[in-house]
Amino acid sequence: MIELLFLICAYLIGSVPTAVWVSKGVFGMDIREYGSGNAGATNTFRVLGPKAGTFVMVVDMLKGVIAVRLSYLLPYYQNSDHLTQLVNFQIGLGLAAVVGHIFPIWAGFKGGKGIATLFGLVLAIQPIVAVCCVGVFLMILFFTRYVSLSSIIASIAFPILILYIFNEPEVFYRIFAIAVALMVVLTHQKNIARLLTGNENKVPLFKNRRGFRRKP
């Protein structure tokens, strides 16, 4: 029962609609009415520029970190004999935060794709793997300016790192890594189609955006 309450709490943390609040509070517009219509860091980068996009990305990432850290409030999971249960519970908390980000109760259940929050989940559980993934993300972003492509490739790198480089022993975590890659690819189908046709928008890395373009 207490675990269920913690999962609900993690969902509520993930539901904090960072992009929506920043766009409305600072820029006087709803990010969901512009660009791709997505309330996440990628669309914030594209529409509002790197400063706003970076802030949204960091906060969304912290939602995943904080959700996972909730597990340390329960003494049961501090016993070294319960390491497998701890990792499984942490993944559950992180996923609850991701669901909250995608379907935020505070913003009409219309949020983002959850990539930054997923990264926060991984960062809290396995920091070295997370750093490797973000390295892949930044490298692809630097050379292409496509956040979507960077997210897809970094997500594919995640299970490769878990399965072959770090050889993670926890079966559930290995399954989770594969599921993350598949989920990111599936949720980016429109982006993949635009990439293939050359219509995907690039993000401005070194300048602010001054104009807003409403979504079609």
The major beta sheet can be summarized as: none
Structural class: mainly alpha
The N- to C-terminal Cα distance equals 45 Å
What value does the average pLDDT take?
90
Radius of gyration: 17 Å
**Count of folded domains:** 1
List low-pLDDT spans.
none
Number of strands: 0
Count of DSSP-assigned helices: 10
Order of helices and strands: HHHHHHHHHH
Q: Estimate what percentage of residues fall within beta strands.
A: under 5%
Overall 3D form: globular
The residue fraction in helices comes out at 55-70%
Nutshell version of this structure?
With 216 residues, this protein is mainly α. The protein contains 10 helices and no strands.
Characterize the structure shown.
The protein has 216 residues and is mainly α. It has one domain. The protein is built from ten helices and no strands. It has helices at 2-14, 18-27, 41-48, 50-69, 83-102, 115-125, 127-144, 147-165, 171-187, 189-197. Helix 3 (41-48) runs antiparallel to helix 4 (50-69), helix 4 (50-69) crosses helix 6 (115-125) and helix 7 runs antiparallel to helix 8. The N and C termini lie far apart (45 Å). 45% of the residues are buried.
